[in-house]
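Notes from hallway chat w/ T.B., transcribed later so I don't forget. T.B. wanted the structure written out for a chain they're using in a teaching module, and asked if we could keep both sequence and C-alpha cells in one place. Agreed to drop them here.
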Amino acid sequence: MATSPSPSPAEAYAVSRRRSKYPQLTRFAGEVSFEFDDFQVRGCEALEDGHGVLVCAPTGAGKTVVGEFAVHLALAEGRKCFYTTPIKALSNQKYADLVARYGSDAVGLLTGDTSINGNAQVVVMTTEVLRNMLYAGSSAIPELGYVVMDEVHYLADRFRGAVWEEVILHLPEHVRVVGLSATVSNAEEFGEWLVEVRGDTTVVVDEHRPVPLWQHMLVGNRLMDLFAGQDEADPNAELSINPGLLRRAEELGRFAPASMRGYRGGRRGAPRPQRFRPPSRVDVVERLDAAGLLPAIVFIFSRAGCDAAVAQCVRSGLRLNGPEQVEEIRRIVAERTADLPEGDLGVLGYWEWREALERGFAGHHAGLLPAFKETVEELFLRGLVKVVFATETLALGINMPARTVVLERLVKYNGEAHVDLTPGEYTQLTGRAGRRGIDVEGHAVVAWQPGVDPKQVAGLASTRTYPLRSSFRPGYNMAVNLVAQVGADSARELLEQSFAQFQADRSVVGTSRRIDRNKEALSGYARAVTGEFDEMLEYVELRAKISAREKTLSRQNTATRRAGTAESLEKLRKGDVIAVPAGRRAGLAVVVDPGLDPIREPRPVVVTEDRWSGPLSVADFPAPVEPLGRIRLPKHLELRSPKTRRDIASALRDSGIALPGRQRRRTSQGDDAELNALRRALRAHPCHGLAEREANLRWVERYQRLQAETEQLERKVAATTHSLARAFDRILALLGERGYLGPGTGEDRVTEHGHRLARLYSESDLLAAECIRHGVWEGLGAAELAAVVSTLVFEARRDTAGEPRLPGGSVPKAWEETTKLWVDLTEDERRHHLDRTREPDAGFAWPVYRWARGESLEKVLTAAETNGQELSAGDFVRWSRQVIDLLDQIRDVLGKADPVGAAAAEAVRALRRGVVAAGGA
C-alpha cells in the first residue's frame, strides 16, 4: 500500500506554528475522527481569533462543525453558549448530539413546550426563545459568550424571519455570533451587514459540495442524465443538456395533448391514441433500487400524496428489509412510541405505519405525529427505512441525507397558489442527496411528465443566483418592548440598522453611523470654543442674519430696478437715442422698433454706432433708461440691408449726442431699519470684543457646516429609507390611541396594558391583549377559554364548507366579542396604514374544547371530521401545543390569582395529556 510522503521540515514547522497559534482548535480537531475541510478550518480559526463568523456552505457540507467549535470554546472559557435553530425538531436533534458529546449536565434544551436544564452552560433553543429572553432581560445574557444561529437564512421566512434579525440586533456587543447558512448568492452582502451591526465578522463561503451531485430525469422507466459530460470537478464549466434526453422528451411530448384531453371516442374500430403513462411510485422505487440509488427521499408537495405513496408501496407487496432489520425496527419503534397511550394507537394509524416502516417505507410531513416523525428520522439515518415520501418541510435543516433525491413535480402549493420551484428551493431540496463519508456521489432525479421541459430543469439545476431577502418588519409586541428598553428614538435607530433596511438602501446603515460620528464631532467642536459656546453661536447667527438681510435688500433692489427698467423701456419710441451702459454693444444706440409685447417685457430693436442691429432686453440695463435725444428716421426701414444700417449709424454719429458720464449706483441698505438694528446688536454683543473671537468663529463655522451636513443626512435617511421607522411610528400612534403607550419616555411610556402586550408573543398579539384588556374572556371555564383562545392561533389549511361548530355555554358570546374587537382593530389598522391582524378562525375550537374536557383522541378527531374540519393526529397535536403556548403566556401575564389566568393554567393542565404531552417536537 502506498504511503503519503513525509512533510518537508518547512511544512512540518508551519503546521506546528499553526497548532500553537490555535490551541483550542487543535484540541477540538483531535476529538473527531475526520480531517476538517479548509472552510471549516477558516471558520474555526476566525472564532478563536475573537471574530464573529458567517459560514455559507451547501447542505451536508459540515458547516455545523464551526457551530460546535463555538460550543467547545464556550466550555473552555467558562462562558455560556446558546445554540439556536428554527424548528423544535432540529433543536431536539442538536440537543441529543451535544449531550452525547458533552454530557447531560453541560447541555440544556429550551423550546416552546420543553425545558431541560435551562441553566446549563450550553443551551439549545429555538430562536424565538432567545428573542423572548432578550426582551425579558434574562440573567443569563451577561454570561453569554457565543450564539450559534443554525439555518440563519431562515430570516427570509415571511412569517417568522423577523425573529432572527431581532436577536442579531439585540444581542450585547460582547457576544460572538456564529451564523450557519445554506449557500446564498449574496453572502457577502449579508456579511457586510453583520460587520455593520455586530462588528468584526469573518465571512466564509464554500460552494463546493463534499459529495458530487449528478442530475437526472426519469423519463418513463428510463433514468437519463440531465447534462451531457457533467464534470463535478469544475462546477463552473458550461453544461449542455443531454441531446438524447431532449429527443426522448420531445417524442413523449407528442402524445401529451391526447393524454391531457383524454379520449373522446370516434368511429367504432378506430385505434385509441397512444397515451403517456408515467411510472407509478412503486415503479420509481423499484427502478431506483435496481440502479443502487437507495436510500432515497421522494419529495411530493402534498401530505395526502405522501400518505398515498406509502399505501401504494405497501399494497404492492414491495419489501426492502430483511427479518433482522424488521426486528431492529420493531425495537426502535417500541422505544420511541412508549409514551403514546395504548388506546390511541388505532386512531393514530400506528399498526399500518409500523408495517410500512418494516417494509422500508415512510412518510414525513407536518401532519405526522411528532413521535412518528422522529422515529422515521432515526430509522432513515440508520438505513432501516430506504424510501421516505416527504413534503418540503423535511428540507429545513433536519439531518436526513440520502443517496438520491427525487422530485415528483416542479410545482408546489405555497399556501396561496400553485407556484414553480425557485432555484434556491431546488438547490435546498436536492442538497439532501449524497451522504458524506458514505456515498461517492449523490443523485438528483426529476420525474418527467407532459409539460416539463428539460431546459427548465437545467435552468433550476445550474442557476447559482438565490439571494437572501429580509422579511423584517416591526410588530406590536416588538414595538412596546423596544420602547420599554431603549425608548422610541433609539428604537428607530435600531430599525434603521436592520438587514431589511440595509437591503432597501445599502447606504442607510453607513449613513446612520456617519450621523452618529458627526454628532460626536459636533460635541467636540462645541467644547473647543473658549467661553460660552451658546453666546458665540448667537453671535454667529447675528452675523448670518445681517448677511441674509443684506442679500434680501439686494434682491429687492434688483427687483425694483428691473421693474423700473422695464417700465422705462416701454416708454421708448422710434428715433430715441439711448446709451447701452456695458457689454459688447456698449455705446450709443438708436431705437428703430420699440419691441412692445402685451405679455412679455419689451425688447427694443436698436442700431448701434458700429452698425449692429438687434433687440435689447431689461438685462442689458442695470438702471432705468432715459432717452438722450432723438434723430429722424425713414418711415420704412429695411434693417437687413447693410446700406440702411450704415446710413442710420452715420446719422447717429453726426447727431452730436454724447454718452453721459458714469453714475454711481445708489443702494437703500443704509436706510433699512431692520439692518441697522441688527448691526447695532452685533456691535453690542459680548463676543464682539473678544480677543479669541476669530478663532472661536472658525470652530463655530465648522460646527454649523457639520450640523447642516448632519441634518441633510438625517433628511436623506428619513426621505428615502425610513419606511420601517415610519411603520414603527404608525404602530406607536395606534398603541397610544388604545392605551398601551402613554405620554412619557422609555419604560415610563409603556402602560400596564403595554407591559402585558410585551409578554404576548403571538401572531395576533394585540388582539389577545385587547381581549384581556376588555375582559371578554372573563367568566370562561378552562375548556371554554381553550376554545376561544384557539381562534387566535389556528389557521385552516383550506376553506371549509359552512360555519365551524362552536361549543355551547359562554363560548359563542366570548367568540362574538373577540370578533368585534378584531373588526374594530382592523379598522384602526386600515386608518393607520398597517398590516391587518389575521381574522380569528374558530375551526379548532370544537376539537380543543372536547380534548380539554377529557374526551379520547378518537372521539375528538371523529367529531372534527363530522363537522367538516378534517384533522390529522399530527395537526391536532401541533395546534394543541400552540394553544397551550398562548395559554401559558396568558397565565404568566395575568397570574394565577386572576380568574382568567387561573382558567388558563387549568386549561394547560387539561390539554397537556396523552399524545399532546408525549415526546417529540
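Follow-up for T.B.: Confidence is low (pLDDT under 50) at residues 258-271. Might be a good example for the class.
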